[in-house]
Amino acid sequence: MPNDAQIKLDGKEISYPIITGSEGEKAIDLRKLRADTGYIAYDQGYGNTGSCESAITYLDGDNGILRHRGYPIEQLAEQSDFVETAYLIIYGELPNQKQRLSIGRLLRQNAAIDTQMLRIFEGFPREAPPMGMLTSIVSSMAAYYPHLATNNFEKDLANFDLTAAMAISKIRTIVAGIYRYRHGLPFNYPKDIPFCDNFLHLMFSEPYQEYALIPEVTRALNLILLLHADHEQNCSTSTVRMVGSSGANLFTSLAAGICALSGPLHGGANSAVMQMLQSIHDEGDDGTRFIAAAKSGAKGNRLMGFGHAVYRNYDPRARIIGHACDVVLNKLGKTDPLLDIAKRLEHSALNDEYFLARKLYPNVDFYSGIIMRALGIPTELFTTMFAIGRSPGWIANWKEVASNPKGRIYRPRQVYVGPVKRDYVLIGKRT
Ligand code: SDX
């Protein structure tokens, strides 16, 4: 076939079909490679390997393009909100009026968590890592709502709309509960108000004083969550697909995704950026020390919030958030010295050959913390905020796995580099 890929191996020439995506991306279909040749493909970190065909998000890292179900992230950021974008990502179309009202109602109706789940919070030390608490409490949802977590795709998909709404809404409520617990504050109960308003109420209302909702704050929170809603096959989303491929229910698969997101190279970067900016501020440094350390190449010294596994261009989300920082701070009548430091750091890095040569640009995490801090969200919760935002993407990807009649369990192979066959030695004869 003219469009096939030819592999010459051990004197044989074998053709493999080319798969072309809806945006023209090309893939070599190697699903028969091992059966045909006994060889496997080796691609550490899967940077050149497609694990699935997905219709949710298109990402062009070279040109800094991000679209959800065909809609550019710039248009969604400008005109949509988190719940509407979550609906689009999960169901594939922008909701009509009726659908928008219905998803909003379902989210409000399922915002509370089982009061017995509050005892799980009590089982943690107050200073426990928020992402550790979040993954445990989300995982417990499979026990509290077993009828929605049967580990039988047909049964679980039959209740998908409710399960998805519960997951998004309760993850938001649990994050606020973690904040209240860590600060020794009484838990708040959800109200019959929109998603982001409810989050701010759950976080900051006090028994003696309701949180005063400010439209600019709600709008900024919508933007932050919307910009995190999905991002193709990133580490945590691929983890959700991997776990879901075993037949695991949505809650359990989401808990696994939260674990993956907690790593400093992934979702943990947003709080690491703020710690980096704060230490530059406290030391009166102009950032050159961090840039010099980052250029050393040591994984532990990386410029947090910079670089990306896919983008070799400016992360479009970072550009949107970077612009929003000034707008949000101005509207709230706030200033943040860390924003000026971040802008100087970005300018220095983008004029430094080390970063330019490696095509290292700001990613979504570089500026997001500035806005979250302006909204009063403490740094310790930044990665859990990422989890709230990413929940629709994880859910949509789990649904693709669960709905695929030809789906298979994810089971990558390896190149074994350990000891070859050897016989057991009795302990008395070992050196
Ligand atoms: C997210 O995948 C997604 O879509 C993720 C995400 C999403 O929405 O789900 O976008 C969210 O995780 C954003 C990334 C957040 N992480 C950080 O900001 C941490 C800092 N960034 C890096 O650790 C790094 O850029 C990664 C982990 C994001 C990407 O790593 P890669 O693709 O494995 O990059 P690499 O290790 O191949 O780096 C190539 C070169 C290396 O130098 P050389 O060996 O060629 O000399 O670039 C260097 C790296 O040392 N490099 C950096 C750097 N990132 C890469 N050097 C300094 N600072 C950095 N930030």
Q: Can you put this structure into words, describing what you see?
A:
This protein has helices spanning about 35, 75-80, 80-90, 95-110, 120, 130-145, 155-160, 160-180, 195-205, 215-225, 235-245, 250-260, 270-280, 290-295, 315-330, 335-350, 355, 365-375, 380-405, and strands spanning about 5-10, 10-15, 20, 25-30, 55-60, 65-70, 70. It is mostly helical and about 425 residues long. The chain has 3 domains: about 5-50, Rubrerythrin, domain 2; about 75-265, Citrate Synthase, domain 1 (Orthogonal Bundle), CATH 1.10.580.10; about 270-375, Cytochrome P450-Terp, domain 2 (Cytochrome p450-Terp, domain 2). Helix 3 (about 80-90) packs parallel to helix 19 and helix 10 packs across helix 19. The longest helix is centred in the middle third of the chain and has 23 residues, at about 160-180. The protein is globular and about 80 Å long. The protein binds s-citryldethia Coenzyme A. S-citryldethia Coenzyme A binds near residues 269, 297, 304, 305 and 358. It comes from Lacunisphaera limnophila. Belongs to the citrate synthase family.
Kindly list the characteristics that best describe this protein.
431 residues, Rubrerythrin, domain 2, Citrate Synthase, domain 1, Cytochrome p450-Terp, domain 2, 3 domains, three-stranded antiparallel β-sheet, 7 strands, globular, transferase, citrate synthase activity
